Every structure is written in structure tokens, then in C-alpha cells.
Amino acid sequence: MFNKILIANRGEIAVRIIRACREMGIRTVAVHSDIDAECLHVKFADESVCIGPAQSSESYLNIANIISAAEITGADAIHPGYGFLSENTYFADVCESCNIKFIGPHKTTIQQMGDKSTAKKTMRKAGIPTIPGTEECITAETPKLFKIAKKIGYPLIVKASAGGGGKGMRIVPSEDALKNAIITAQTEAKAAFGNGDVYLEKYLEEPKHIEFQILGDIKGNVVSYPERDCSIQRRHQKLIEESPSNISPKLRKKMGHYARLAAKAVDYFTAGTIEFLVDKKENFYFMEMNTRIQVEHPVTEMVSGVDLVKEQIRLAGGEPLGYNYDDVVIKGHVIECRINAEDSEKDFIPSPGKIESVIFPGGPGVRLDTHIYPGYTVPSAYDSLLAKLLVIDTKREKAIARMQRALSEFEITGIKTTIPFHKTTLANDYFKKGEIYTNFIQKRLYGEK
Whole-model pTM above 0.85? Predict the structure, then answer.
């Protein structure tokens, strides 16, 4: 097992990894930008190294500085968390060449699954259902573009081939909007990922976004966990997740089988997620694979009782999985609310600034993953996630009531947060009935736009 792990990330996920390492007896190194010197992950780690100024490109995305920090401190492994360099093939390759273990899958898997077009081809070859769309990347000048689009069928969605998180995505309701949507998506994808490649896909109206957490060891053993429903989103970014979803047990079993099949198709190793879209008739389609730990991994941890970060580290160290799919059980119903520094009443615009005071929720069945504290300044340079509030209870209706109680206790002053949004959503009758889908916010909360 590793002696010292450098965490190439910040905020709540860095804190989460440090906690797992401490319980495993592994020393930790925090890296940070100059404006993150007072961030909680820096305070919690055994050692810390400043790797550059606020801009991500000069700090958390600066591979040379991160590798130097690992070598200076004697770290024998690097955990990338999520975002930043977590799905960067070159970074994984550099770690390997420097004899530093990258805590994630093999670089070839990252490359294969990181390109969405290649990922779909791989899944189709393995017999996994995929959403109808283009085999290759397209541009506004692709020959027979309109004929191709018509064959797939409107509405369409333009998607960035690299990256995720809602960047480089545009819905195309009709032929008139096609070229402009492609150009806009290309521009956004290029700015976000350094890769402007996009492709077309059939846009499923009111689907559920269902994903399966998977773990794999170096011997090819793979296990899947109870699914997470991530349908409550804005601009393709998740806000509420829960497990289990309200799909039928038969469909859960079938989708879990295909999730494991998908992982084995790419010799998957450590922690990852297979994401599907499910239509109203319970047809499901592979959407993408995330080759890293997910933001919402605590949902699965609570519903299964398994520490996924420890498992990820253990598997990266070469240990066998040691259990199979039949050993995983559902232990209740879990709901997670992402608390962001955003003003939900003003189209979720970011709300950076100094936190004046905080009252954290607690009590039975409540978990809070966060890096904030009174006096902490939320920077504008990074993602707006402040905390992940989770609850577990025996049934969904009880979990909703527990989350409503926890949200009523949670107070953050000095900045705007999405706490009011979550209170509104959990009180919504459609949400309570489980009638949720990816455009729930637009249709059930704020009206069609």
C-alpha cells in the first residue's frame, strides 16, 4: 500500500480523500493555489505545497508543478479527485513515467472513454444500447449535414466529444438552429477542454439520468452498486441525486448487468461510473463513462455502506476486489443535495464572496461533506460547490422529510446559496411522487423557457 498520497485537487473532494487516507494510515500532501492557502484541505493534510496562482491553468492544471510537488515531498501516488486532471490521459502517462502511481484507471481506458464518440463505438461493439447519433465528429460544414440530422430525427443535441459537466452541449429543436448550435458548442468545448470536436445525438425528451457506480480490480473482476438517479439538473449539471431510483427491480438488474459488461469491455480498473438515459418506456441507452470518482459518490457510500474512496485507493494499490455483485445490498434510501454558491432566483449565477457565518445540520442519518467554515472566502476562480448534504432513511418519503429538516437547519450567510432551491424542490408534489426527469426544473419549477 502507498506511504504518501498527493491530492491533485481542492475543496471538499480533497478533504474527503485526506480523511480516507488518514484512516488507512497513509500520509497526505495537499497542493494549492495561492488563493487557496487557507482552504480546509490545506489545513487537514500532513504537508502542503503551493503550485501557482489562482488560474487553474497555472495551478491545478499545471502538470509540471504537481509532479514536482510529488517528487519534492516523496509522494508515491497521486489522487486526482474529480474534475481538473482526473480524466487527463497525458497526466496519467506522466505519472507513470515518473514512477508515481496514478489512482485511477489505465491511461488507455481514460483515452478510450474520454472521447465520447469512441466510447459509443466501443459500447456498441460490446452490445450495450446507445443513443442514435453520428459515428464521427461533425462540423457546420459536414457534407450532407442536414440529411444526417434528419435521419437521426429532431430534436437533437450537439455534444462535446471531450469533457462533460454540460459544457459544449446545445439542444437543436429544428433544422434552422442546427448550424448555429454546432458552432456555439464547438467554441464552448474548445474553451473548456482544448478540444472543439462535437457530435450529434438524438435528444430524448424527459428521460431519467440513471448511473451505476462500478469498481474493478487488476484481475478483471467488476462489481456494480445500486443505481443513482441524477435527473434533477440545470444546464446539464446535477443538483440532486438519490438512490435507489424508482425503476423496476427487473430493470435495475438488467442495467446493472450492462454496466458491468461495459466496464469489462474496456478492462476497467478502480472506481468509475456508467451513465445511462432511460426513456418513458424504460428503454435505456449508454450515455458516457466517467473514469474517476464522482461528485455524488457519497450517495452510493451511504446506500451500500462501502467507503468508495478507500476501495479506490486499495484497488489502485493492486489489492483484489474480494467480493461480487451479490454481496452488495441496498440499506435504505439516500438523497443528496449539492449546495452551491449560486443565486437560484437569478438563473443560478455564481455568488462568490466571504462567508460570514455557518450553521451546519446534523442529527440521525445526516452526512455533510464540505470545506467551508465561518470566515472562508469562496473564490470566483473555481467551481461553486460548497457542500454536499446527504440523508438516509428507510423509505423515500422519510428521506425527503429528513432532508427538509436538515435543510431548515443549514444556514450560510454572506453569500447566496442553492439552499432555497432545494427547499422548493423537495416540497414540489411531482418530486414527492418521483416524477422526475432531466428537464424537471424548467417544466415543474420555473416553467418552460
Answer: yes
Selecting among 10, 16, 228, 292, the annotated active-site residue is 292
Cα angle 356, 342, 333 (rounded to 5 degrees) comes to 100
Give the integer Cα–Cα distance in Å for 391 and 408.
13
Is the pLDDT score of 220 beyond 90?
Answer: yes
Domain boundaries of the chain, sorted by first residue: 4-103, 132-202, 208-445
pLDDT, position 136: 87
Instruction: Tell me the three-class secondary structure of 145-175, residue by residue.
Output: HHHHHHHHCCCEEEEECCCCCCCCCEEECCH
Q: Contact 204/129 with Cβ under 8 angstroms?
A: no
- In three-state secondary structure terms, 297 is helix
Among this protein's residues, is 292 annotated catalytic? yes
Helix (H, G, I), strand (E, B) or coil at 205: coil
Q: What is the CATH number of domain 4-103?
A: 3.40.50.20
Give the mean model confidence (pLDDT) for residues 430-434.
96
Q: Is the pLDDT of residue 449 over 60?
A: no
Nearest-angstrom CA–CA distance, 81 and 205 = 32
One of 3.30.470.20, 3.90.1150.10, 3.40.50.2000, 3.40.50.620 is the CATH number of 208-445, namely 3.30.470.20
Measure the CA–CA gap between 334 and 313, rounded to whole angstroms. 24
Q: How many residues does the chain have?
A: 449
- Provide DSSP, 360-417: ---STTEEEEE---TT-EE-SSS--EEEEEEEEESSHHHHHHHHHHHHHH-EEESS--
> CA 55 to CA 381: how far, in whole Å?
7
- Quote the cell numbers at residue 222: 467488476
